[in-house]
Amino acid sequence: MDLVLCHTTADFDALGAAVGLCVLRPGSRIVLTGGCHPTVRDFLALHRDEYPLIERRSVNPQQIRSISIVDASGRDRLGKAAEWLDLPHLNEIAVFDHHLQADLDIPATFTQIEAVGASTTLIVEKLKNQAENSDTPSRLLPSEATVMALGIHVDTGSLTFEGATARDAIALAWLMEQGASLGVIAEYVEPGLSPQLQDLLREALNNLRSETLHGYSVAWVLLSTESYVPGLSSLASRLLDLTETDALLLGNVYKFSENENNRNIAPESPVSNRLTIIGRSRIEGTNLSELFKPFGGGGHARAASLATRDVDPLLTLNQLADELKTQIPHPPTARELMSSPVRSIRPETSVGEAHRILLRYGHSGLSVVDADDRLAGIISRRDIDIALHHGFSHAPVKGYMTWQLKTIAPDTLLPEIESLMVTYDIGRLPVLENGQLVGIVTRTDVLRELHQQKARDRGSNAELSYCAVSESVEQLLRSRISAELWQLLSIAANIAQNRGWQLYIVGGAVRDLLLATDDTLALTDIDLVVDGKCGSDDSGAGVELASSLQKLYPESRLDVHGQFQTAALLWHKDSAFGSLWVDIATARTEFYPYPAANPEVEASSIRQDLYRRDFTINALAVRLGVPRSGELLDFFCGLLDLEAKQIRVLHANSFIEDPTRIYRAVRFAVRLGFEIEPQTEGYIRNALASGIYYRIQGENGRAPALETRLKSELKYILQAPYWKVALQMLGDLQALRCIHPSLELDRELWRQLRLLDRCLQGRKKEEGRRKKEEGSSATDSVTDVTDVRKKEEGRRKKEEGRDNSLSPIPHSPFPIPHSPFPIINIPDWQMRLEVLIAYLAPEYRGKVAANLQLPADSIKRLEVLEGGKNQLAENLPKCELPSQLVLLLRNYELPVLIAIALQSPRSARRQIWEYLTRWANVEPPLNGNDLKALGYKPGPGFKRMLDDLLAAKLDGDFGDRAAAISFLAQRYPHT
After folding, report:
1. pTM score
2. Cα(272)–Cα(277) distance, integer angstroms
3. N or C terminus of the chain: which is more exposed, having fewer CB within 10 Å?
4. Kind of pairing, strands 209-213 and 110-113?
5. DSSP letter at 734?
6. Helix 723-733, helix 660-672: angle, nearest 10
């Protein structure tokens, strides 16, 4: 375990430097050795989960490998954690500090103590240097950049303190480029006030008037001074912070004479009252700029000012305060924010089992309910970790849970929820209705809502850890799909709403909607997710909604998959919808019991449903129906990745759990013209290099993700027009190892695939020719029989006029033209896949084909391929006549011949190709009916006779029909 220690009463500089070191040294954990500054405490109350913090008491000293100390160089500033410095087995003790005068009494193996304004600057310089010298630089997370920027801001007074240096400014600039949130920084930085402003602050606090509306507090105050006071904006910001007010109007009235600015004005010119008002707001939906505009003021929605004269100051301020209150929207309630259903356990559940449940569902805590399903307590991951550390895995959770709980009701407003979390340092608040646990609001839920509000107001995407939610996309969706489809979605949303559910359109349809450049979007596959409790049966909300829709659209077909709580409505060549597939599922979460397994699914929330998806660009959802119809849900920065044209996975273990996502990543990247994000590519390579898939097949006997699901992804890729580019990308990633550990796309395999492509192109040309002839035949069938005969005679003469260089018989009435390419009744993608599998060693081919669940004939072809190749290698050189070649090769299935040709030397390949293109479809000059007409008795001998006729024709032993009959009479005389 690698630890980073912050000094006691940690400030932002210590925290920022510690977070930066954890980025430099992945896997390190931060220990706050003895509390923190109140502002830092408030910050961590909301953002603790963003950083790798660990409790001092949960650290096992024997597992510590190295210790780094930031913003301190004395043992006395580390509290009890200083004892760890004397551990004999430590590999390293490093110190990073900017206090040059402090005494160093730590036995450090590495020190960096330099004259900069903040210790964080030293760490940022290392990060910046690493990024600039890396072939694949990675960006900081906004949460990391923000806390480091806070460290520099606070310790340098936003670059105004004497100790601030140019190095601090450069570090801050780089952190801004990395996405540090100015909004979050402004909330926690404390600028100083001049003595005059400090006096006015006291006066303002004594005279402040406030009112609470919809859970938001609005305050206003009027200050009177002899003259204009600079710096009122800083005073307003400080007053806003001290009073924890959500919106503030700070007025200042002072005397103003025209001669103060103009010497030409007579000294006895009248003195007037001037009114300046500074406005600050933290409330989503308020717009101070619009509020101040009638008085000539302006600015931003959350920060604005005005200056006017000759008005009643108090009346004007009160009027503006009343108008501001009318702007305040109704904030979100707990019902809108909460996750439901809640994962819960009984008090008797063991600590070890609770830990397993947390791991399975990725939660940071669990609700504990009694036998009547009433809330009994909450246990956090931190509590469970400590219990496990002390060896109490078999103890019941009731001994470790928190039972004195703060709870909220479904109609509790967001400001009150936020206040409870900050005041009591609570990470999750249970939502109770009639004594029953109906949901839970977590710190993440609150953070996401707060930061999405800020992003909406500022039009920015750089908020802490979360991306901006765009404006409603309802109009965009409605304008780009057909009226009939919009009506279908509206009806579905209304049905869901009447049942108390929320309906979303998710995944690829949302992605394609946001990427579309045309005015119309032809959707043939739509995924809908229902977020709601299941009905009385086990089919789920999705199935119930699909059944209700099918009754309204009886022309559709309903398919139900109860195991996965999904249903599908299908229209085929419908007059209104064309060919449309609408998949309707209950919101669910999934868990993979082992890598490459089929997932186990359970009903959950829309957030968990999106989290289980493959890539951020596919984890987007649009809300259908009120409230907030058309709202875009983007929990994972999918919008940013769409703009950046990159494929990014949602979590590091995604490819371990489901290797088919590797193929999906490549498919989406090539199809959309995107790049695979560097860290995602790293996850792919690590998963493949680990050998986990091959081990799992050996341990469990099978890996479903490497069977039919992998075949489906291979089919998508190998039948697409971009298959070559996609396959090359898979080869570069060495992802063909998912098919078999030894399979790689080397030059020889690529040559075989290109040769196959030439063969398949020839087949396509022949199929086009045949379809054209069939079309002509259909047209000719309505003409006179005489015309048909004339056309046939013309065709025969045209055939005779062709180049007969392929025929060994000069001027023969039976020329052998280029044979039409033989029909291959196997799709192109399967032929390509068989070539890939055939490149493996013979003993693996049949097993891999069976594992991918290819058709039985495909498996057999691959199993007999090696034997056939060896036989032809021996016999092809012996074929001197066309008849010998035909009689040898016609015993082989066409796909087998092609596969053998691809792996054979040029001479053998030329013979097989000549057979396929010149001789394969040549027929004997006489048929069975002719033989019977000549007096031969039907029987086994007919085959020998026809074979001899074919051989003689191929070898040029006769020139016309009469010669063929004579040949037959000589060879098979009548008895």
Report:
1. 0.64
2. 16
3. C
4. unpaired
5. T
6. 130
